[in-house]
Write a structure and sequence with these properties.
It is a single chain. With 101 residues, this protein is mainly beta. The protein is built from one helix and five strands. A five-stranded antiparallel beta sheet has the order 4-3-2-1-5, with helices on one face. It is globular, with a radius of gyration of 15 Å.
């Protein structure tokens, strides 16, 4: 999850570019990631909007930038419902910096 400098949550939302941790058992800071975009709240996120307080895990529907084959061999997947704990906001890049001068 994206965080402010003080450690508070920025939150995730529809339209946000994210990196998805491929293997939840791996170290989140060094594990393999795939990129994608959040396209909708997951079923558990929708339930959270109805309830004032919930202990349910938040999930998001992520559409991958390229079809993704999971470590278990399933796929290729174009999208998946992913727990928020496996998502990290993708770093911002200036597209102009990538253009030749």
């Amino acid at each position: 999850m994206a965080v402010n400098k003080d450690g508070s949550s920025l939150g995730l939302g529809v339209g946000m570019q994210v990196l998805v941790l491929v293997d939840p058992a791996s170290d989140p800071s060094t594990g393999e990631r795939v990129s994608g975009v959040i396209v909708a709240p997951g079923r558990q996120r929708a339930a959270a909007f109805i309830s004032v307080w919930t202990e349910q895990l938040t999930t998001w529907i992520v559409e991958f930038d390229e079809p993704f084959t999971a470590p278990d061999g399933s796929g290729p997947h174009e999208s998946a419902e992913v727990r928020e704990t496996y998502l990290v906001a993708a770093p911002f890049t200036d597209e102009k910096a990538d253009l030749p001068v």
